[in-house]
C-alpha cells in the first residue's frame, strides 16, 4: 500500500526542504504542531522512502569547481554488457553529479562539475578509455540561473 501524505506532511516536507538542519521544535512551531507528532511523521516518511538521506549543499565555485558541463552522449551500443560498463564508469567518476537516460536523439545527458576545461578533458579522456561512445557533445554552462532540489509540494 502506498504511503499517503496529507497537508501536515506537506508542511513538514516544505520545512525540511528549506532547511533540514532546523530543530524539531522549529519545524513543529512552523507547521502548527508539537514536537512528538512531527517526529513521528518524519520517521514514517523516512520508513516509506519519501525522505531519503540528508546531506549538505556545498558551494562548488567557492571550492574551486568553476566549470559545469552538460554532456550529451549518443551511443551505437545498447547491449547489456555495454550499459553495465557505462553505468559503472559513471558511478565511479565523482565529477558526474547527475546522469539521465533520455528518449529521443540523445541517449544520455550528464551534469559534470570540474575545476576547469583541462579537468573536463581529463574526465572525457578517462571516460572514453573505459567505454566506447559513438558521439559526445559537451556544453559549458555560462551561468547557473536556477538550481533546486525542492519539489513543488
TrEMBL record:
Gene Ontology molecular-function annotations: sequence-specific DNA binding
Biological process, per Gene Ontology: regulation of DNA-templated transcription; response to amino acid
Keyword Repeat assigned: no
One GO CC term on file: cytosol
Stretches assigned to the HTH asnC-type domain: 5-66
InterPro entries: ArsR-like_HTH, AsnC-type_HTH_dom, Dimeric_a/b-barrel, Tscrpt_reg_AsnC-like, Tscrpt_reg_AsnC/Lrp_C, Tscrpt_reg_HTH_AsnC-type_CS, WH-like_DNA-bd_sf, WH_DNA-bd_sf
The protein, known as: ArsR family transcriptional regulator
Organism: Marivivens niveibacter
